[in-house]
Specification:
The protein has 583 residues and is of the alpha/beta class. 29% of the residues lie in helices and 19% in strands.
């Protein structure tokens, strides 16, 4: 056996293996170190020393080099884990982060606006997210403010979200919030290490992680949404972490450009994968367990979670999926002819007559000011110009598959459990035209069935046939401070304030049932990430018609109980509505 020398350092261990004329040096973190990403960062910083040592011939020189490396690491700031009383400094592949704690939520550490990829500017516009340079880990990052959302606009057409409830919009504004094309950031909320239920600094148990993906029809959304900030959730439970992130939307996330035909036309979906990989590599430094992460989304975010399910079935990284009102069978966005909308945009900014040269067209559009493009799409949309411009995910059989039935039955989806749910009045915000008195019962029911409930039922049925574990919920809460008009009911998105714990932040106090429903919902999702949701009384949905659908927020049934929804399932044939619906 070749000689193996181990040198113990204060934060790193170093091994030297000599075999004849060759040698190798291995560096690994000492017990108690919280992130492999720091080791990677150190190896990058020390690579010249390691290379120099590799050509030395004597054992004594090798040991001397090894000791020198450990001495250098002792003086390398990025190597140092947070001191016991400095839980707000964490080293990651995105840099050495300096987070914050707010007085109103003293047991939650917040690390905000963390870059997870290079800015998608210039030649990186429309490209897959490019990893940060390795040297980034040596930089200090003030992670105390949520980063700007990706380029987008809030349309003027009246709807529930710009007439009744503004807290689902960026920064709660009735307009477009802080936006930038340089937007690929994420934020982490984690319990403090000295909180009553939080992890201990030494030998702490890693906590489950919920990775949140916002909705918005693939055209709007971001981290900075008042109803979707998880601080209060983590403050209450102290037993999980939440990651929320930006991904590219609209024209910049889903350009459908001819010049990308041999690449990925849906870079916004690749942003989502990059976040999961970042979490795998870094979340342990925050006290999160990379082996107990779940990917959760709502509406378009939920559909993209299911897209992820198909695209990365061989290596999902996460241990489960949560899909609120959206699956891969949900129809979201327009039906534009292939490439035509991108080419039309190109023609408006001096890039016309290049359709026959897709690479030149793409290169030309990459040079146009992004905000000017977004403003053009906004003005055209708000003016009601026909045909409208739509930029949403398109099937490429890499990130989005058109044959989800065959792929599910052939077991080409991730073999992990899933929660799939819908809301009782999901169809209300989508029913057109908007009226301050709300849509008719029949209109909102048919809209909700076709857009959400039937696709969810079809997805569930396919998973059951293929033998994949699925849990189903049906949210029915109608609480005044979330649904200020009685006809809103459990409208699309209304479950989110309950889960994030923000339900009492606007429009008056909450009822006891509202509080109990929120806690039951929150605890179920955390249990799903931690071990099994069945510890909360929620049973697997074995077959359509089963009475194990979890009903949250029912005024007659309490915070959570198991029911069946046979009467609704009978109105679906696959993902489509087939029956006449009458009151």
């Amino acid at each position: 056996m070749p000689p193996f020398i181990v040198i113990l350092g204060s934060r790193l261990d170093l091994g030297v293996v000599i075999d004849g004329k060759s040698l190798s040096i291995a560096i690994w973190e000492s017990p108690g170190s919280s992130s492999a990403s720091r080791t990677s960062c150190l190896l990058h910083s020390l690579s010249p020393l390691v290379q120099h040592a590799a050509i030395m011939k004597s054992v004594s020189s090798v040991i001397a080099a090894a000791v020198a490396i450990l001495q250098v690491t002792s003086a390398t700031p990025v190597a140092a884990p947070p001191a016991p009383n400095d839980q707000l400094t964490i080293s990651t592949s995105s840099g050495r982060l300096h987070g914050k704690i707010e007085k109103s939520n003293p047991n939650v550490r917040q690390f905000l606006g963390i870059p997870f990829a290079q800015p998608p500017l210039g030649d990186l516009r429309f490209a897959p997210p490019k990893p940060l340079p390795k040297s980034t880990c040596n930089k200090d990052v003030e992670a105390k403010k949520i980063g700007p959302s990706c380029l987008q606009f809030l349309g003027k057409a009246p709807n529930v979200y710009n007439r009744q409830i503004l807290e689902f919009g960026l920064q709660g504004k009735n307009g477009t919030g802080d936006i930038s094309e340089d937007c690929l950031t994420l934020s982490v909320w984690a319990p403090t290490v000295d909180s009553k239920k939080g992890p201990e600094p030494e030998n702490r148990k890693l906590l489950p992680v919920i990775i949140w993906t916002f909705g918005g029809g693939f055209t709007t959304g971001g981290v900075d949404v008042p109803y979707q900030i998880p601080t209060q959730w983590v403050q209450r439970t102290q037993d999980h972490l939440v990651i929320s992130y930006n991904y590219r939307v609209n024209f910049f996330g889903f350009p459908n450009a001819r010049g990308l035909k041999d690449q990925i036309p849906n870079p916004g979906l690749l942003d989502q994968r990059a976040v999961v990989e970042w979490a795998r590599d870094n979340i342990a430094a925050f006290g999160g367990d990379p082996k107990r992460m779940v990917l959760w989304g709502q509406s378009a975010g939920s559909a993209s979670v299911d897209y992820y399910n198909f695209a990365h079935y061989n290596d999902p990284i996460v241990k489960g999926f949560i899909m609120d009102s959206g699956t891969a069978q949900t129809s979201i966005g327009g039906t534009e002819a292939k490439y035509s909308n991108f080419t039309f945009i190109a023609s408006q900014f001096g890039c016309g007559n290049l359709a026959s040269d897709p690479a030149a067209e793409l290169a030309c559009v990459r040079k146009v000011d992004g905000k000017k493009i977004e403003s053009f799409i906004r003005d055209r949309t708000n003016a009601g110009t026909v045909p409208s411009l739509s930029f949403t995910p398109v099937p490429d059989n890499k990130t989005v598959y058109s044959n989800v039935t065959d792929r599910t039955l052939n077991k080409k989806i991730a073999n992990v459990p899933a929660i799939i749910g819908t809301n009782a009045q999901d169809g209300v915000p989508l029913s057109q035209p908007y009226s301050d008195s709300g849509p008719s019962f029949q209109t909102q029911l048919i809209t909700g069935l076709s857009a959400f409930f039937c696709p969810a039922t079809s997805t569930t049925s396919l998973r059951q046939r293929a033998g994949y574990t699925t849990y189903r919920y049906y949210y029915g809460g109608n609480f005044t401070n979330i649904s200020p008009a009685p006809w809103l009911g459990a409208y699309h998105s209304s479950e989110l304030p309950m889960l994030f714990g923000t339900y009492g932040n606007f429009r008056g106090p909450s009822t006891q049932l509202e509080k109990q429903t929120s806690e039951a919902f929150q605890d179920a999702y955390v249990a799903f990430a931690a071990s099994s949701v069945e510890t909360t009384g929620w049973k697997k949905y074995e077959h359509l018609g089963d009475n194990t659908i979890r009903n949250f927020g029912n005024v007659t049934g309490g915070a959570a109980k198991n029911i069946d929804v046979k009467w609704l399932e009978r109105l679906c044939n696959g993902a489509k509505v087939v029956a006449n619906v009458t009151q």
